[in-house]
Specification:
Strand content: 15-25%
Order of helices and strands: EEEHHEHEHEHHEHEHH
CATH architecture: Alpha-Beta Barrel
Number of strands: 8
Largest sheet: 8 strands, mixed
Radius of gyration: 17 Å
Strand order of the largest sheet: 3-1-2-4-5-6-7-8
Number of domains: 1
Number of helices: 9
Bound molecules: iron/sulfur cluster
CATH topology: TIM Barrel
CATH class: Alpha Beta
Distance between the termini: 40 Å
């Protein structure tokens, strides 16, 4: 059984996938998003600890009674796709134990191990951070083609998908962007939900502690009304959108 680096656990999460979820934050990220809330997960090892998949399962099982019909485990990060074999072992054990599996990812890594992980993944929360390639290149550090290719694979495999986007005023809060996001959702049958998440700056203290600049520190944060207004352009996904604020 392989071991993997985990940053932290959250026992009863309600914003990372359907229902009540046990959230596992993986250590390490291949991207450097300027809006990132978790810069402490960037380093490959960082302050994390090594865990075996069986130990993760043992922790998840403690909360199984809270999962009811639609809850389960969510792997987040950092980027879970950097440790696909470890993630797959965790999901395979969870599925053996009747626990729903959900993957929160940027969709920026595609290889055979990642494809094997998708074999035991019930839902993907795919962060489509922008709808313009220039914004991806400038603010994320990869091409938009990667998450779009990843979404194509999810669609081929018919894996239930939630598209998520952090709304950052002056950067991606235009109606034009939301319309493009809507078109991306509509052209992939696997997408049954779209979530707009408000940009927040509570992570500033993490950047201060790490002594690195928070690139978006000077940008404003959206109001609840701003998010509701943009949600209204998502038409058929409107019933599925979360309040987000
Ligand atoms: S993919 Fe997620 S964890 Fe990685 S830099 Fe971007 S926001 Fe941060």
């Amino acid at each position: 059984m392989s071991k993997g680096y985990i940053h932290s656990f959250q026992s009863l999460g309600t914003v990372d996938g359907p229902g009540v979820r046990f959230v596992v934050f993986f250590q390490g990220c291949n991207l450097r998003c300027k809006c990132c809330h978790n810069p402490d997960t960037w380093a490959k090892v960082g302050d994390s600890k090594l865990f075996e998949a069986s130990e993760v399962l043992r922790r998840v099982l403690r909360y199984k009674e809270y999962f009811k019909d639609n809850g389960g485990i969510t792997l987040s990060g950092g980027e879970p796709l950097l440790q696909p074999n470890f993630a797959k072992e965790i999901f395979a054990l969870c599925k053996e134990n009747g626990i729903n599996t959900c993957l929160d990812t940027s969709g920026s890594i595609i290889n055979n191990d990642v494809l094997a992980l998708l074999d035991v993944t019930d839902r993907v929360l795919l962060d489509v951070k922008y709808t313009e390639n220039s914004l991806y290149l400038e603010n994320v550090g990869c091409s938009i083609n990667l998450p779009l290719e990843f979404l194509g694979i999810l669609n081929e495999r018919n894996i239930s998908t939630t598209l998520r986007q952090v709304i950052i005023p002056t950067v991606n809060d235009s109606i034009e962007n939301i319309n493009k996001l809507y078109e991306i959702a509509k052209s992939h049958k696997c997408v049954d939900k779209v979530e707009l998440l408000p940009f927040r700056k509570i992570c500033q203290t993490k950047y201060d502690e790490m002594n690195i600049p928070f690139s978006f520190a000077a940008l404003p944060t959206p109001t609840k009304k701003d998010i509701e207004h943009l949600n209204s352009f998502l038409f058929e996904y409107a019933l599925n959108t979360s309040p987000s604020v």
